[in-house]
Inverse folding.
């Protein structure tokens, strides 16, 4: 089964699901949601799933969802911030006035 990313608002995080049956949590990106903004604060992937691109899938899916929901992104998490640096087409999710603060 292909990995998938799901939003778990009750846990304030996005989870990437993988494994043989596609139900094992392979990683997550924690966030804090407030009026019109989503602050990504921590991202973690299980070392057993390293090298499969799941962290990138998680970041892209979470940011795509933020865009679809019209949310501005605050990338406090170094992984999410680094992913945005490598994919500048996502920098517009961070308000221009906040980009210098995050090195974007």
């Amino acid at each position: 089964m292909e990995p998938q990313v799901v939003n778990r608002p009750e846990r304030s995080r996005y989870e990437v699901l993988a494994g043989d049956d596609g139900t094992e949590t392979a990683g997550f990106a924690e966030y804090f949601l407030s009026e019109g903004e989503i602050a990504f604060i921590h991202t973690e992937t299980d070392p057993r799933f390293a090298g499969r691109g799941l962290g990138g899938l998680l970041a892209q899916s979470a940011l795509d969802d933020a865009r679809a929901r019209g949310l501005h992104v605050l990338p406090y998490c170094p992984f999410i911030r680094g992913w945005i640096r490598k994919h500048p087409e996502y920098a517009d999710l961070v308000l221009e006035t906040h980009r210098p603060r995050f090195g974007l």
About this structure: The two ends are 35 Å apart (CA to CA). Residues 54-68 form the longest helix (15 residues). Residues 4-102 form a domain with the Aminopeptidase fold (CATH 3.40.630.30).
